[in-house]
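Sequence design from tokenized structure. All designs in this work follow the same two-part layout: the structure record, then the generated sequence. An example of the structure record is given first.
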């Protein structure tokens, strides 16, 4: 299963709030919580998850996450022998 398929399954709309404002609030809270990743319960893993949730409704974040994904995948492919 590809990374794209896994992400689609995780971020299926049934798992997120139905309202746009609710999704934006959840995404923003995840990013803010991730910035406190040095604390025991919170983690830096929350930042990319929050950006992925925000990318559903915000075109600017969607462009950023798409460019970052392409950059990381190109780097990953060059890195592998």
């Amino acid at each position: 299963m590809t990374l794209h398929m896994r992400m689609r399954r995780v971020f299926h709309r049934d798992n997120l709030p139905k309202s746009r404002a609710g999704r934006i609030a959840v995404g923003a809270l995840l990013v803010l919580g991730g910035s406190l990743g040095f604390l025991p319960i919170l983690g830096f893993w929350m930042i990319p998850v929050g950006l992925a949730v925000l990318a559903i409704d915000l075109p600017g974040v969607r462009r950023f996450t798409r460019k970052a994904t392409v950059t990381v995948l190109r780097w990953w492919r060059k890195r592998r022998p």
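The CA atoms of residues 20 and 57 lie 7 Å apart. We note this feature because it recurs in several other targets discussed in the main text.
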